[in-house]
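Hey L., structure's done. Input below.
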Amino acid sequence: MGAQDPVGQTAAIHVAAAAIQDKQGRVLISRRHDHAHQGGLWEFPGGKLEPGENVLTGLARELREELDIRLLRTEPLIKITHHYPDRSVLLDVHRVLEFAGEPRGMEGQPLRWQLPVAMQAADFPAADRPIITALQLPDRYLITGEDGARPVEFLQRLETALQQGLSLVQLRAHALSDTAYQRLAEDARDLCRHYRARLLLNRPRRLPAWADGVHLTRYQLAACRERPQVTGWVGASCHDLHELQLAERLGLDYALLSPVLHTASHPDASPLGWQLFARWADQVNLPIYALGGVGLKSLDRAKRAGAQGIAAIGAFWGNQEPPKP
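Output:
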């Protein structure tokens, strides 16, 4: 993340923040005091790091002071740099998976447990809004295989994936005509609705009103001058920092960044590797999925590199046997 504001004068205030989840998936938020910066808005608990303090140590201290709870287990969620007119902040956000104690407002701040899907961006400081998106998106993203011309087998494979808990699906069937794609999309929609999953389509010019969103290719992204006017999620495939920054400027919800590792489908492509992935992810305020040569064993590594999670075809689709009819 950048360490200075747009005019290069003030170092960003480094803040450790927590997305504390309970067993129902609700997240704990607290209301800022009216006299504070961004007063009256809801936020994710945390606070400014002390000089020389690492993020997890600082987060544990803040949660103990603010909520009287003890931090036990976390994972990285997202990093955000935001420039307000009077200050810049670097939010280092971790998802709290386990804690001890009962949260209470030790500084008199009101607390609320809320499902991410119910969070409204206008109720939070602008810097916190990408956190809401990251909480609403899952950490596994299924891209369907290329057997769309065999719809029975295709839908069997899709159902098998959905039964494994996948909740975000991109319908990728480039070989199909628009008419055949639309028919397959309607059948896939019915399956996704049954399993409470969201279905993204990658043909923005013919996007039906029922779609849960759209996914753009890098070429469609490059042609955009503004965020597509559609309901639901909007994401894009990216392969370099410039494309990631464009996705952020357009206000997209997420990006796929690839290829992270070597892939059998693109053997000549040069992989980014985790180090470069992390460096680029650190420069945009956007949930980013790692794509290319990754599977479930890569999920923790991806999160440590700043990823929202992993996106894959083979790991979730190509290696599974569809159920018997």
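Confidence is low (pLDDT under 50) at residues 1-9, 320-325. The first strand starts at residue 13 and ends at 20.

-- N.
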